[in-house]
Write a structure and sequence with these properties.
alpha+beta; three-stranded antiparallel sheet
């Protein structure tokens, strides 16, 4: 009897274990499936939110950073941001001052010309007034013969046309002078505001540098070395961005992006995307940051790289971590960038057609092996290249 009870108890225990296992297995399966199918975007957004949790965008998340070093890097980001703002405000001030100088010079010339034309017009009106009741009809009727009549007619016609033109020119010049004066007043007011803002930002910048230096004195030698490396990296990134912005905006050619699908930039079958657009861990720096384009692999050194669309080459040369780099302006704010090339096959200001060879695949700059880094920018902002090109 006891043995039957024991067997019954064992059976009940086994059934409970089986139910628990089956329930757990089912829950695990459902959890995995839901995570894969439903939560990828949420996880990605969560990562992005953690990286950009504050107004300071840290482009480095390294466990080896101490609290003090982390504080220094946050201040460093602010310093770089303020420096960029000061430089941009300085450039804007210079451009405004050039515009003011040009407008002032043109206003002076226009005023002189206006005064001269006004003097001539006044003299003409005085002459007409002093002539009294003599009219152009009287002049015509006093002609000696038909030839004299025709001659006087054409002279009167030219005088009348000249007077009308003079009146219109004086009127137009006066209006233009008023517009130029208003433009000058607006620009002079704007430059005062920009100057005050630049001075204020410069004060904040100097204060941030002083604060940063006070933290630096607390670092160990190893931390100071790491601090210098991170600062150098970020300085290089800032310089690269400045060059890219200059190449993006530094073209006055009247080109227009015609739209349509861009050509896959690597002229070889079987290529694959080895690193996509978005947040990733950098393969060299070992830091978490935004990948601003796509990496196209399975293309050996020397593989032709082609222009994704018609445009004008605005950059062709070495560009820091991008290595040998080419940038093409396609018009309407659309710019493509091709990096890590082994050899550049084009030049600045060259007009290229879709499919023209501009570069050869390589591993220059910050690269772990032969591949093409391909970016698309819209009005200076990063865009997902896959919204413009289709994987072949």
């Amino acid at each position: 009897m006891k043995s039957k009870i024991i067997v019954l108890i064992l059976i009940i225990v086994l059934l409970q274990c089986f139910c628990i296992f089956a329930f757990a297995e089912n829950n695990i399966s459902n959890t995995v499936e839901n995570t894969v199918t439903n939560n990828l975007d949420a996880q990605k957004q969560d990562v992005e939110n953690k990286i950009e949790d504050t107004n300071v965008k840290l482009e480095y998340v390294q466990s080896e950073l101490t609290g003090t070093l982390m504080e220094i890097q946050e201040i460093e980001d602010k310093v770089l941001s303020y420096e960029k703002e000061v430089n941009e405000l300085g450039t804007k001030m210079d451009n405004l001052q050039s515009s003011i100088n040009e407008a002032t010079y043109n206003l002076e010339l226009a005023s002189q010309d206006y005064e001269e034309k006004k003097r001539i017009l006044v003299n003409r009106l005085v002459t007409i007034y002093e002539s009294g009741d003599v009219t152009y009809l009287d002049i015509l009727l006093n002609s000696r013969d038909l030839t004299d009549f025709i001659s006087r007619y054409y002279i009167i016609e030219e005088i009348t046309e000249y007077d009308n033109r003079l009146v219109n020119e004086v009127k137009t010049q006066k209006e233009n002078i008023e517009i130029t004066k208003q433009k000058l007043e607006n620009e002079q007011a704007e430059i005062k505001i920009i100057k005050a803002r630049r001075e204020q930002t410069s004060i904040v910048l100097n204060n941030m540098k002083t604060l940063q230096q006070s933290y630096v004195t607390k670092l160990s030698d190893a931390e100071k070395k790491l601090q210098e490396q991170i600062t150098a990296y970020k300085r290089e990134q800032a310089e690269i961005e400045a060059k890219i912005l200059e190449a993006t905006n530094g073209i006055d050619a009247d080109i227009q992006y015609t739209g349509g699908e861009m050509l896959w930039p690597v002229a070889k079958s079987g290529t694959v995307i080895t690193s996509g657009y978005g947040i990733r861990e950098h393969p060299i720096q070992g830091i978490v940051k935004s990948h601003t384009g796509i990496d196209i692999g399975n293309a050996p050194t020397g593989t032709p790289v082609v222009a994704a669309a018609d445009g004008i080459v605005t950059y062709a040369g070495w560009l820091g971590g991008y290595g040998n780099c080419v940038m093409i302006n396609h018009g309407d704010g659309i710019v493509t960038l091709y990096g890590h090339g082994s050899k550049i096959r084009t030049s600045v200001n060259q007009t290229v057609k879709q499919g023209d060879i501009i570069l050869e695949v390589g591993s220059t700059g910050n690269s772990t092996g032969p591949h093409l880094h391909f970016e698309v920018r819209v009005n200076g902002n990063y865009a997902n290249p896959l919204n413009f090109v289709k994987i072949p």
